[in-house]
Every structure is written in C-alpha cells, then in structure tokens.
Amino acid sequence: MSYTKISKKERDYLVLIFEMTKEFPVRVRDLAEATNVSEPTAYEYCVRLSQKGLIAMKKGMLKLTQKGSEVVAEIIKAHRVLETLFYKNGVDVEESCAECSKIDYLLDRKTVEKLYTKLGKPERCPHGRPIVVSER
Predict the structure, then answer these.
(1) Is beta strand 26-27 parallel, antiparallel or unpaired with respect to 55-58?
(2) Residue 75: Cβ-neighbour burial (10 angstroms; 0-12, 13-18, 19+)
(3) What residue segments make up the domains of the chain, in order of their start?
(4) How do residues 7-31 score in pLDDT, each as one tens digit?
C-alpha cells in the first residue's frame, strides 16, 4: 500500500480504534482492555502510531488522523475484497476473515483494485458489510 509501513499489531490497533470510535475518541484504557494487554503496552503501540502520524493522542484519548483514516479505509477494503475472493472460492466465511487479517495490511492498493474489479466490484463482503468504507 502507499502509506507508512505498519506491523500486524499496529494494523490491529488502527482497525480497533476505527471500530471503537463512534461519537467520542477511544481511551488508551479501552484499547488495552480490548486487546488484553496492560495500559503501558497499549500506550507504547499508540506512541508508535502517533509518531507515524496515524493517530492523535491527547490526555489518554486517541483519534485517527486524516492519514490514519485513509490507511484504515484501505486496510478494510483490502480485507473485505480478499474475504470475498476467498469465500467465492470455497473458503468458510470465518476462516476467510481470519486469514485476511493476517495479510490485508500488506497488499498494494493497485493489487486490491485489480482484485476488486475482477470480482465485479461487489458492494458488500460475505458478512454483509460495505467493501468501501468512508473515512472518519
């Protein structure tokens, strides 16, 4: 993808922040609980994401930056495109989801677009979620 390189764990934190953010920013404490790690460990990952310009941190509150929102939207699209591809080729929905989570953040945007087009630009993944998400 065309953004800053991230690790699998950083990918997981970004997606969680995106999913947990509704009207209010996420707290480091909430992220620690959701990932079953200590607050200092969650904080360390948040510092890394902040240094990469992907989240903003203020008084223990976390919010995706514009760049972070773009990265998450690309990850989610890649995940859901791959999930659809796997499912259409006979892989169970939950297995597809689990496997895609291992590689979705590694794919180049061009590759995802080619797969998306080849699949006929589906609107939803096998779980019924929109493949293209709007950035927050």
Answers:
(1) unpaired
(2) buried
(3) 8-69, 72-118
(4) 999 999 999 999 998 767 899 999 9
Looking at residue 95, its pLDDT comes to 95
Query: Which class is 8-69 in CATH?
Result: mainly alpha
Cβ neighbours, 10 Å, residue 128: 7
This model's pTM is above 0.70: yes
Longest dimension (CA), the chain: 47
